[in-house]
Amino acid sequence: MIQQQTAVVRSFNRSYTQRIGALEESFLGMGMPLSHERLLFEIGSAPGTIHRLRARLGLDSGYLSRLLRRLQSEGLVAVTADPDDRRRRRIDLTPKGRAHWTELERRSEERVRMLVAPLTDRQRERLARALAEADLLVRAATVSLKTVDPCSEAARGAVGRYFAELGSRFGYVASGESEKDAELLVPPRGAFIVAFGDGEPVACGGIQRIGDGVGEIKRTWVHDDWRGAGLGSRLVRRLEDVARSLGYRIVRLDTNAALKEAIGMYERTGYVPIARYNDNPFATHFFEKTL
To answer: Is the pLDDT of residue 174 over 70?
Structure first.
């Protein structure tokens, strides 16, 4: 089965790269190979530090430096010290680079329009849906789950998004939660995990001790753009593995009735309803799983 699945992906890769011009020495006639044009596109789309750019694209630092040297020699990008952290370098497009980026966008759009023009409206809709689903699943497959300090920048950013969502949905206002996490979601009684996609936090969750042999899953959040690809269940499975390593035999969690997708995911992964076990005023459903 896996050989058939990988064969389909490989066939698509070969077909698509040929048809979008990825094999051309001068991508879209812009004067540089796809690797350099793609890097320039990313810089123009989301300027920032070289560190963040490397993390987002998953590139080796030496290879990225060689690509950047070409862009600098062409007068397309400028590298300066980051005003927020002088130890890091910031990369931005020059005026010439911005003009190049605009033309690259125009030609890319034109190439794709030509590619789909022979299709009917219905076929184009099918293609768009299929590619959106494929894009989500491929990105989900490359997500990495890492145990981090709950006080780290990545953890604080993810938890901030988690509380912002609780606030918008239920009017919840966090108070002193960071201090609690720093104490409870760390070894030897707990842990905090962040999922990274394209170099950025896209999901998170923690485990803490609430009783003898009993752990509780907390702070589970998945970015809106990454929902629907099984990332939540993957995160819960990793938290269960961590719970086992910490000696917990039972895992509990709470949620709200409005979060129907989350409830469905917990039930599919073996969690069973139990009576209320805490005083969380926003929780309406309580679950437990024996590991």
So the answer is: no
- Among 38-42, 81-85, 119-123, 170-174, the minimum mean pLDDT is found in 170-174
Distances (CA, A) of 155 to 77, 219, 241: 32, 10, 19
Domain 144-290 grouped into CATH 3.30.70.1350: no
- If DSSP states are collapsed to H, E and C, what string results for 239-288? HHHHHHHCCCCEEEEEECCCCHHHHHHHHHCCCEECCCCCCCCCCCEEEE
**Same topology for domains 2-118 and 144-290, yes or no?**
no
Which pLDDT does position 172 carry in this prediction? Answer: 67
Fold of 2-118: Arc Repressor Mutant, subunit A (1.10.10)
The pair of structure tokens assigned to 145 is 């789950």
pLDDT value at residue 185: 94
Average pLDDT, the chain: 91
The pair of structure tokens assigned to 121 is 């409206």
CB proximity list for 136: less than 8 A, separation 6 or greater: 226, 228, 229
Distance CA 67, CA 155 (A): 31
Secondary structure of residue 123 in the 3-state scheme: helix
- At 95 the pLDDT is 97
Q: Which residue has the tokens 């609430």?
A: 210
Distance (Å) of CA 61 to CA 37, 53, 55, 69, 229? 18, 10, 10, 12, 30
* Percent of the chain whose predicted confidence (pLDDT) is above 70: 98
For the chain, what are the domain ranges?
2-118, 144-290
Q: What is the pTM of this model?
A: 0.81
